[in-house]
């Protein structure tokens, strides 16, 4: 009687669900991992290059949302549907080519002063929840830092 209670149940093959069916847009919540390089051309205009556009299953942590940028120059990230219309709220991102630094105000005073420096090139990363109908993302440059503001659209992976 003891010998039969310790036996394993017979193995039964149970196939895993199809990965394509569980990760398709609209059925499972997804996170977008977006990485870009922004640079200043010789003419002074800004250029934006995608480094990585990746969608993975998952849900965004509502507490993980970054604060909105405090400066007057920023990037606006919008998710677009198949008709290139915005779907869901847009998100303001700090301008990657403008960095705030603190430096001594005057020698010997011990006081610090905040300065904004302009970089020639910078890489930045964004993590955001994918809207169910999103097929592309648009990044727009807003503010006085833009000599001729850019607006670039990139298709998203399925």
Can you walk me through this structure?
With 158 residues, this protein is mostly beta strands. Helices cover 6% and strands 44% of the residues. It contains two helices and nine strands; from the N terminus they run H-H-E-E-E-E-E-E-E-E-E. It has helices spanning 2-5, 19-23, and strands spanning 30-40, 46-57, 74-80, 91-94, 98-104, 112-118, 121-129, 136-142, 151-155. The strands form three sheets. It has a four-stranded antiparallel beta sheet, with no helix packed on it. A three-stranded antiparallel beta sheet has the order 2-1-7, with no helix packed on it. Strand 5 and strand 6 (112-118) form a beta hairpin. The N and C termini lie far apart (55 Å).
Alpha carbon gyration radius: 24 Å
Estimate the helix proportion, in percent. Answer: under 10%
Mean pLDDT: 84
Q: Report the strand count.
A: 9
SSE map:
Layout (H helix, E strand, L loop, with lengths): L1 H4 L13 H5 L6 E11 L5 E12 L16 E7 L10 E4 L3 E7 L7 E7 L2 E9 L6 E7 L8 E5 L3
Antiparallel strand pairs: 1-2, 1-7, 3-4, 3-8, 5-6, 8-9
Tell me briefly what this model is:
With 158 residues, this protein is mostly beta strands.
Features:
44% strand, 3-stranded antiparallel beta sheet, 2 helices, elongated, mainly beta, 158 residues, 6% helix
């Amino acid at each position: 009687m003891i010998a039969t209670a310790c036996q394993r149940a017979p193995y039964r093959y149970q196939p895993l669900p199809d990965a394509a069916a569980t990760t398709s847009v609209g059925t499972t919540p997804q996170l977008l991992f977006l990485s870009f390089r922004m640079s200043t051309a010789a003419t002074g205009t800004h250029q934006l290059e995608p480094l990585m556009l990746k969608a993975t299953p998952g849900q965004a942590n509502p507490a993980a949302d970054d604060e909105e940028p405090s400066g007057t120059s920023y990037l606006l990230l919008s998710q677009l549907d198949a008709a290139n219309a915005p779907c869901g709220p847009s998100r303001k991102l700090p301008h990657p080519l403008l960095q705030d630094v603190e430096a001594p105000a005057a020698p010997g005073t011990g006081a610090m002063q905040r300065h904004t420096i302009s970089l020639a090139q910078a890489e930045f990363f964004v993590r955001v929840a994918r809207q169910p109908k999103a097929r592309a993302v648009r990044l727009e440059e807003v503010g006085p830092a833009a000599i001729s503001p850019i607006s670039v659209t990139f298709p998203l992976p399925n």
